[in-house]
């Protein structure tokens, strides 16, 4: 018998949770409901789900705090998280993705959109868990241990910036447009503005420190990671 994908719904409004659960059952999923962070944690401690649907506004701990907490835990880190919220502004979307959410769904949403996004993160789940190491010059990224080092020193890189760096390093020396990065890093089912890429590239450069020069902006084309960054020539002043 085929195992139905388990979906943990973390939602404090029973009517919304029940509506989501009914639609999930009718479409081949096995839903479970938790009304707050504590009850959600108990569900996770018992059995890990395949996907978490996480409401932003919850009593006690917010969905944002819970996403960060579960991403920091090696046991729950691989589970795809879809953030459900009425907050539709771009800064809120970026905050949700930065906290570790794999996708962001703004209320109200259609059943078909929700189902499509759940299926999309499930399709992407296996490749994202592949453990490998990439080395470009003195910059090393280890996907298995989730570590980044430069010249032997550890770097603190956020979850979205880690995904972005991983993709750029695996495709070093190639130029990628903003739309290509959105598709490959965030997924082609995520509807966010291309300017979001610029925000995360800026944060990535800040995290890389001295290695930030390896992430180049190619005017009119996009971004590239290179082992041989272009050094701007210094202007010699006449005495």
Low-confidence stretches: 126-130
Biggest sheet, spatial arrangement of strands: 2-1-3-4-5
Q: Using DSSP, what is the number of strands? A: 11
Number of helices: 8
Structure description:
The chain has 239 residues and is α/β, with parallel strands linked by helices. 40% of the residues lie in helices and 20% in strands. It has a five-stranded parallel β-sheet, sandwiched between helices. Strands 6-7-8-9 form a four-stranded antiparallel β-sheet, covered by helices on one side. A hairpin with a 3-residue loop joins strand 10 (215-218) and strand 11. The longest helix has 18 residues, at 111-128.
Per-chain topology:
Layout: E1 6-10, H1 14-26, E2 30-34, H2 37-46, E3 51-55, H3 63-72, E4 81-85, H4 90-98, E5 103-106, H5 111-128, E6 133-136, E7 139-142, E8 147-150, E9 153-155, H6 159-170, H7 178-186, H8 195-208, E10 215-218, E11 222-225
Parallel strand pairs: 1-2, 1-3, 3-4, 4-5
Antiparallel strand pairs: 6-7, 7-8, 8-9, 10-11
Helix pairs in contact: 6-7, 6-8
List keywords for this structure.
239 residues, alpha/beta, five-stranded parallel beta sheet, four-stranded antiparallel beta sheet, 8 helices, elongated
Give a quick precis of the structure:
The protein is an alpha/beta fold and 239 residues long.
């Amino acid at each position: 018998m085929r195992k139905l994908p388990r979906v943990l719904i973390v939602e404090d409004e029973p009517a919304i949770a029940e509506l989501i659960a009914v639609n999930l059952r009718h479409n081949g999923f096995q839903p479970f409901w938790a009304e707050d962070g504590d009850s959600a944690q108990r569900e996770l401690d018992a059995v890990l789900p395949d996907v978490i649907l996480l409401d932003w506004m919850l009593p006690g701990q917010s969905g944002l705090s819970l996403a960060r907490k579960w991403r920091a835990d090696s046991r729950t880190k691989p589970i795809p998280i879809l953030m459900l919220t009425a907050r539709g502004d771009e800064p809120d979307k970026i905050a949700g993705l930065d906290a570790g959410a794999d996708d962001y769904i703004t209320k109200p949403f259609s059943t078909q959109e929700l189902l499509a996004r759940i299926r999309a993160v499930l399709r992407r789940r296996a490749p994202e868990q592949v453990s490998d190491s990439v080395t470009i010059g003195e910059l090393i990224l280890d996907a298995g241990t989730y570590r980044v080092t430069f010249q032997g020193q550890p770097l603190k890189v956020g979850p979205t910036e880690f995904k972005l760096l991983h993709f750029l390093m695996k495709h070093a020396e190639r130029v990628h447009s903003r739309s290509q990065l959105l598709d490959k890093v965030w997924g082609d089912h995520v509807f966010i503005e291309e300017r979001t890429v610029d925000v995360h590239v800026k944060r990535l450069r800040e995290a890389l420190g001295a290695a930030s020069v390896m992430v180049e902006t190619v005017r009119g084309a996009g971004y590239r990671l290179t082992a041989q960054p272009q050094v701007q020539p210094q202007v010699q002043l006449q005495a």
